[in-house]
Amino acid sequence: MKQTILKIHPNDNVLVALVDLPVGQEITYGADTFTTIDLIPAKHKVAIHDIKADDDIIMYGVLVGKAQYEIKSGGVITTSNIRHAANSNLTESKHAANWQQPDVSAWQSRTFNGYHRADGSVGTANYWLVIPMVFCENRNLEVLQDALVKPLGYGRKKTYETKAQHLINKVKSGGSIDEVLYTEIDAADATSRESKVFPNVDGIKFLTHTGGCGGVRQDAETLCGLLAGYITHPNVAGATVLSLGCQNAQVSILQREIEKRSPNFSKPLYILDQQTIGKESDMIEQALRKTLAGLIQANEATRQPAPLSKITIGLECGGSDGFSGISANPAIGYTSDLLVALGGSVILAEFPELCGVEQNLIDRCVQEEDADRFVSLVRTYAQRAEEAGSGFDMNPSPGNIKDGLITDAIKSAGAAKKGGTSPVVDVLDYPEKVVQPGLNLLCTPGNDVESTTAEVGSGANVVLFTTGLGTPTGNPIAPVVKIATNTNLYNKMSDIIDLNTGTIIEGEETIEQAGERILDYVVKVASGEVEVCAVRHGQDDFIPWKRGVSL
């Protein structure tokens, strides 16, 4: 019989409903038996025993809230009867007690086919970038994009443009409102792609943004660090950079940040300064010529075998639900452990979503200075949020709350499962680069796109993105693998979701089996054998974090 409830940790005093539980249903779990006194929607939590006012509510074995008033056995946990609370008494690191590595014998000889770079890194894709130093150059990027993408064969016939034209023709011919609303549209071939001029180049990407000037100087420096992370990224063959000339984000800062990340940088890099060149037409012509010259060089690269240790995975979640922490997140946590055991790197970010589990991560830090830095970054972030009149307790979105993540600590305890169980080898501040194999902590917001943008800038060449509600986000240069926490979502939004872990909820697959399946998929994606949904849809989301309070 299908399981209907789950106790995540032996010390928990709440259960998770895996299906809707009606009022009056008798529940037996181990030695505990109670009757539901409320409707318990799937993904929400129910009290096992009476919980008195101000008592701790424990989930995942950690403090996730305090009772606002007495909650009777069988009662649902809601925003009205629980308030955010998390463990804030952090102690010294236990210095990463012995880690039980998973068995990776089946993976030891596996390779993926990637693009080998001069610095020893290996890309899972091969892109050319066009980057503005300041938002003033965004229009010039748009001109270049219009001039290059389709003629080079990187455009796709646009499904909705085709459908719109069909409907417009219907309007022109005098069609009624009902005909416009209900006529079937055949656009089966609307996603076909033109043949590429440069078959070994996956695309040319244009990273428009709203930064580079105004704000404080630190904003410009941080932006240059992020852009340098993209230029030096293993998935990038080279770049064309457009500068106005007078902005805060000076080319010299970018060059310094590139040198910091790649001392022997040798990729083709063309930098054009509009105020030096003069006419816009001259600027655009030079950009066209140099970009095409760069693409000729980029096309010389071909995929070659590489060990799985050359994969760096970014771990992300967005549109999370009450199943995220018990299906997709622990599944990619196991994938992370497999990759770490193989010598690869993983990045766990979203610091506002580590609230309440900091001690666990502190205890996993190999170096004491990393534990200290993690504590400092988290506390500074939390303090700035409070000074702005907010706080980590305001992190859950309306969608999170509706689907069972009713406090930040509940959300965080599940989100942290993405990091598996391996030791923390480094703690990075945005936008620093990953240099250590193993589990790296990166300070970013919980905002999906800002965090994904940051992880890729730090070196992730594949991103695993779990979602319980559905989100279409992607990245310009790294494949973002979208993983559903539940089967209903996977079936409902199959056009933007790549994998399903609802099988764990349904008892058809263990967390370990799902984690292995995900790693096998990652290898195929890294080899260019599988095109993920976000890449197919051209979902090139890129939002730099302007070091303010973003939850």
Describe this structure in words.
There is one protein chain. The protein is an alpha/beta fold and 551 residues long. It is 31% helix and 18% strand. It is built from 17 helices and 22 strands. The protein has helices at residues 138-148, 159-172, 177-182, 217-231, 251-261, 274-277, 280-298, 328-341, 358-363, 368-387, 398-402, 408-415, 448-457, 487-492, 502-505, 511-526, 533-536; strands at 5-6, 14-17, 26-29, 32-35, 45-47, 56-59, 62-67, 82-83, 111-116, 122-123, 127-132, 203-206, 236-243, 269-273, 304-307, 312-317, 345-348, 424-429, 438-443, 462-467, 480-484, 499-500. The strands form 6 sheets. The protein has a 7-stranded parallel sheet, sandwiched between helices. A 4-stranded parallel sheet has the order 12-11-13-14, sandwiched between helices. β16 (312-317), α8 (328-341) and β17 (345-348) form a beta-alpha-beta unit. 50% of the residues are buried.
